[in-house]
What does this fold into?
Amino acid sequence: MKPTEILSSEHRVIEQVLDCLEKMADQAGREQAVDAESARDAIDFLRSFADACHHGKEEAHLFPALEAKGLPRNGGPTGVMIHEHETGRGHVRGMDEALAAAAAGEAGAAARFARHARDYIALLREHIHKEDHCLFSMADQMLTAEDQAALLASFDQVEIHHIGEGVHARYLELANRLADRYGVARAKAASGCGCACGHR
It folds into this structure.
């Protein structure tokens, strides 16, 4: 499996949680209350799986590999992707702050949570589309077989040393619990792999 296939498969799991988050946002807007347990789970997933694990692989390994092949960061696609990662982090912080405010009974907190959630969802869906349909195709063309093997090894190091053994699987289970809770379809497991994100 190529590095871009792993990242694209991880996108499917992230989209699954985005679909759940959208239902949370709709509920928060409709009822002026946040499902605190589900929202905490979603924020935890977005910070740990979507950002630290998935975006971490891109920012620390994939993007530098492409830049080493001549793809510019300033004004180039990797720079745009990093900027969108940072924007997304701001929305996740906003959701977390609104959740705390809602727990304290602050008026308007649920609406604020819903607004940050919807902005994050729109950003990530477009971001994922750009990576799946543009950046990853470029990567497949630019990177040699040796480059890709090195990236796969680097991804494994992120999983083992930065995220922690067994943590990846725990977040896949969390994503599926949210999907079952909100009636969202689970991401299909990648061919030949026991997990939905394609991690080896």
User: Anything to note?
Assistant: Helices lie at 3-31, 36-68, 77-103, 109-142, 145-164, 167-182.
